[in-house]
């Protein structure tokens, strides 16, 4: 299988994952379900950035993926803190 075909398939699957995550954000039914769906979006962004880094053969995009991962981690911690405060 050609590498470009593999990248097209990977990007199609990542796009489908984004659509499914937005669908889960819209439907809910609970706040933790929506938080997990929102947490998936930066992870998919990291995947898209990694595929782009491979396609263009530029390692600098992997640095961008690392920044997205660190920002996503901080966002997840903030959501967890908010949910914990809400339960009390």
Question: Please, could you describe this protein's structure?
Answer:
This protein has 88 residues and is mainly alpha-helical. Helices cover 90% and strands 0% of the residues. It has 3 helices and no strands. It has helices at residues 3-27, 31-56, 60-87. Helix 1 packs antiparallel against helix 2 and helix 2 packs antiparallel against helix 3 (60-87). The longest helix is centred in the C-terminal third of the chain and has 28 residues, at 60-87.
* Unreliable segments of 5+ consecutive residues: none
Describe the global form. flat
Hey, roughly how much beta strand do the residues contain?
under 5%
Class by alpha and beta content: mainly alpha
Largest sheet: none
The share of residues in helices is: over 70%
Q: What is the mean pLDDT? A: 90
Beta-strand segment tally: 0
* SSE string: HHH
Output the radius of gyration.
16 Å
Number of helices: 3
């Amino acid at each position: 299988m050609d590498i470009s075909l593999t990248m097209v398939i990977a990007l199609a699957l990542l796009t489908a994952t984004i659509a499914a995550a937005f669908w889960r954000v819209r439907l809910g039914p609970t706040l933790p379900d929506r938080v997990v769906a929102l947490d998936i979006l930066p992870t998919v962004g990291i995947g898209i950035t990694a595929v782009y880094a491979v396609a263009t053969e530029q390692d600098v995009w992997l640095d961008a993926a690392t920044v997205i991962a660190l920002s996503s981690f901080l966002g997840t911690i903030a959501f967890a803190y908010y949910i914990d405060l809400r339960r009390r």
